[in-house]
Amino acid sequence: MKKYLSIFGLWFCQMLTFASVVTLAKDRIVVAQDGSGDYRTVQTAINAVPDHSTRTITIFIKKGTYKEKITLPEAKTNVTLVGESRDETIITYDDFASKPDSAGKNIGTSGSSSFFVYGNDFTAVNLTFQNSAGPVGQAVAMRVTGTRAYFQNCRFLGFQDTLYTHGFGTVELYRGCYIEGTVDFIFGAATAWFEDCSIFCKRGGGYISAAATPDTVKYGYVFYNCHISGDVPAHSVYLGRPWRPYAKTVYIQCDLGDRIIPAAWMEWSNKDNKATTYYARYNNKGDKELSPPTWTHMLTDKEAKQYQRAQVLGDWDPRFIK
Prior knowledge:
By secondary structure, the protein is an alpha/beta fold. Helix content is 15%, strand content 31%. The protein has a single domain, classed as Pectate Lyase C-like. It has helices at 2-26, 42-47, 108-111, 273-276, 301-304, 309-313; strands at 28-31, 57-61, 64-67, 70-72, 79-83, 89-93, 115-117, 123-125, 128-131, 142-144, 149-152, 155-157, 163-165, 171-175, 178-181, 183-188, 191-195, 198-201, 207-211, 221-224, 227-230, 238-240, 248-252, 278-282, 297-298.
């Protein structure tokens, strides 16, 4: 009897070890167009992720241009995408707002995105997200609806409405990213912190941000230590205009360059936005060259302390990924 128990015990331990190996293997998925990985497309890899995962599932994407319209569903939580090379691992599609759907109706700005993030706790590192439709109106590269979305060393390429921080009352962090566009190319309702990012204003543009901050949310967009450049003429771009009446946008310790219009901010078409919008700057390189309207703000040292990352993002503090 003891002999059989020992054999059973050995078999059981082997099964546990095998199960552990299988579990660990599922924590990392490889995508490669040449077939050398687990999947050839990013979408099929995302589909393979277990629903409502409480552990991080990493999808490593090898170099290549992946022309896919991708959706990360709400059930796909704790997913991390890592590109082999930021500039050579490109996820792209070419939809645009005025493109008709199968019923003949325009797909709209929200439907034009190349990548949709609905799942919470999403991370992307070393990737390029692109809308390649060109200057044809609204054409989104990335739309984020889920909360606690973290982007590190990513590029967002497009023209109008490149990056859609869509989530109502959600938080997002962009660190060391490159974001380009023409009109309102960073827009939406989320609370978003941009740190050490390069903002590139493309020719034909006029507005960097168009926040739609809800009136019940304290923080909207905070740009911290970011650099603004572009191929537009000097003094031709606004820092922002309010997509919704309670838009909140603050630039702190940024290099504003020489592309910004001296007025810096615009109230859009509704003069009443002046009373509800909160636009502010603090200790930026280039502040002295600006003469913004009196309804905007220059933060005091005391006020600026309220705009640290911990205050803006709360207890969410994603780690830097090496």
